[in-house]
């Protein structure tokens, strides 16, 4: 375990805790962005440059901006925070605790398969390799996903289109 | 309705052409206009007057700060007749007249003189009527001086200390135009 | 003097950093002079010859101004906002190839901060993070106008990133790589006629440059700071050097956008007849091949900077020509015109590649 990995994991765990524990929702979102950064760092350590960059562009750069956007609009703060009944809090704690238990139990005995330095392919995470895999083995799901996204984009364009009779400035 | 002038244009509301809707030709048109200005500013002489370094010339009919003139012998010309104060449409001039004592003949030209003479530069409209009213050719509006800005209002009330022309010939001016050294020498010889 | 290769690379990174800062500094001066000339004025000419020391005077002014924290502001985030804007702006110039390589004996120095095979995505990712500096600063100011500016910045950047990415895809379809260095090298091949990407992607370039204006928050898309409606937008409450950092970050973004456009569409460090010139230097002037290559590299560096300065000038030229868009016009332009146009461009490029018209 390299010191870089330890550092990234430490920051990732700390910021993930920050997401849950921060009182201010804007702080929560910022912690979540930091978590995504550390995840990208992990991808880089795994030699997956493309995945790291896309993770930052899509999650940190676009989706979290929208999150922040909405939260800033709502202007949530401690005064407007709804108070949950004690029963719900206890139920949430039990549910979360059991999930943690299951995860720990499932991952406790996993021994990561180490890589052999001689046979390790250093180019594995590179963008051209990834492209070949996506377009050869997973061409159908990839195209389906892209059609879904295209449909979403066309939908947003249609929403923005002027209707006939709408006021034209 | 009959139009009042023949300049009115009838506007037809046509749908925009493709070039107009594409907006890019209009942008390039605007860019060429600004670029023309850029080259004009960069190559031709600029219109800007760089003020502290260069000043714009005053107009020949410019009327600036007042001065109370002295005569050739260096005596004050003003006799405190009050005609300037009467002529003044803004009522900016006040004065107190006094009698000339014995031994002051080299200071004041007439037997009556202005003990105090004040012009309020905030009221003054620099019309020049005082200059026209003066029978003794004592008050003039200089063509090259202005009342500078001040912080306090009472600093704009100019007394005799700031209005009367200085005594030394080199500081004298004729209608506000500084005397040349030759003219100053001539005046000095006359005074001696 | 012996330095390991990594040491040289460190120097290149440092130089990139310094050049970004220097160019941003003098952009403030250039902006004023160009604005003045476009409006038949004189511009700053008091500090030093031709006013060249004006940026220094500005820096002194900004540093000595009062540090102001608005009431009810989130102090930590209020400071963090401008820092983030500056950091993200500076980070993005790291992958831009400013020149080919210099060779002294055995040491080869690539005139590029870091070469990664997803260079374009790196720039894209960092640029998409740039909006956080504006959003956080605008929100932390505890001011309605700042918040509106921040929200405008967010939605504007996200909308135009899509069109920008789609315009970029058409270039990447031809190049087949994301590395900026590879894209540059592909735009000039020895011994054959080879055009820069602008000749193959004119539509894509127009879309890209419009989106670059929107991404750097420059007029006609400077709605986040729109002073007629929002006072100063996201930096209304900022004073002193925190304000300066925001302004600086904007100019660094302009510099990076210009550099990226030069690299993607205008051949980067290539210039016409470079190989002929190198061969002529070797054959007629009797220079060694290495020396001739070094000369070509340096000329290419100068050429790239000339292109970059041309684009920076264009940014300023447009700023003082076009009025600001209205917000709904901006969104309509982005979503209903640029994005369909970019998709059409992708299909057109795909068709042309399939039929072998361009490669």
Which architecture of the domain at 66-191 in chain B would the CATH scheme give at its second level?
2-Layer Sandwich
- The stretches of 5 or more residues of chain B where confidence is low (pLDDT under 50) are none
| Largest β-sheet summary of chain B | 3 strands, antiparallel
N-to-C span of chain B: 84 Å
What is the overall shape of chain B? elongated
Strand order of the largest sheet of chain B: 2-3-5
Secondary structure layout:
The complex is a heterotrimer of chains A (about 170), B (about 190) and C (about 350).
Chain A: H1 3-21, H2 25-45, H3 49-74, H4 86-107, H5 127-136, H6 139-160
Helix pairs in contact in A: 1-2, 2-3
Chain B: H1 18-22, H2 24-43, E1 66-68, H3 83-87, E2 93-99, E3 112-120, H4 129-133, E4 139-141, E5 157-158, H5 160-163, E6 173-174, E7 177-178, H6 181-191
Antiparallel strand pairs in B: 1-4, 2-3, 3-5, 6-7
Chain C: H1 5-38, H2 54-64, H3 75-91, E1 97-104, E2 107-112, H4 119-140, H5 144-175, H6 180-186, H7 197-200, H8 202-215, H9 227-230, H10 240-265, H11 274-285, H12 289-319, H13 327-354
Antiparallel strand pairs in C: 1-2
Helix pairs in contact in C: 1-10, 1-12, 2-10, 3-4, 3-10, 4-5, 5-8, 5-13, 8-10, 8-13, 10-12, 11-12
Overview of this structure, please?
Chain C: It is an enzyme of class 7 (translocase). Chain C: Its EC number is 7.1.1.-. Chain C: It is found in: Cell membrane; Membrane. The complex is a heterotrimer of chains A (169), B (192) and C (359). Chain A has 169 residues and is mostly helical. Among the domains of chain A are: 6-77, NADH-ubiquinone/plastoquinone oxidoreductase chain 6, subunit NuoJ (Four Helix Bundle (Hemerythrin (Met), subunit A), Up-down Bundle), CATH 1.20.120.1200; 126-162. Chain A is 71% helix and 0% strand. Chain A is built from six helices and no strands. Chain A is extended and about 65 Å long. The termini of chain A are far apart. In chain A, 15% of the residues are buried. The mean pLDDT of chain A is 82. Chain B is an alpha+beta fold and 192 residues long. Chain B has a domain at 66-191: 2-Layer Sandwich (Alpha-Beta Plaits). Chain B contains six helices and seven strands; from the N terminus they run ααβαββαββαββα. Chain B has helices spanning 18-22, 24-43, 83-87, 129-133, 160-163, 181-191, and strands at residues 66-68, 93-99, 112-120, 139-141, 157-158, 173-174, 177-178. Chain B is elongated, with a radius of gyration of 28 Å. Chain B starts with 17 loop residues before the first helix and ends with a helix. Chain C has a two-stranded antiparallel ribbon. Chain C has one domain (65-96, 116-354). Chain C has 13 helices and two strands, in the order αααββαααααααααα. The model of chain C has no long low-confidence stretch (mean pLDDT 84). In chain C, strand 1 and strand 2 (107-112) form a beta hairpin. The interface between B and C is medium-sized, with 16 and 14 residues.
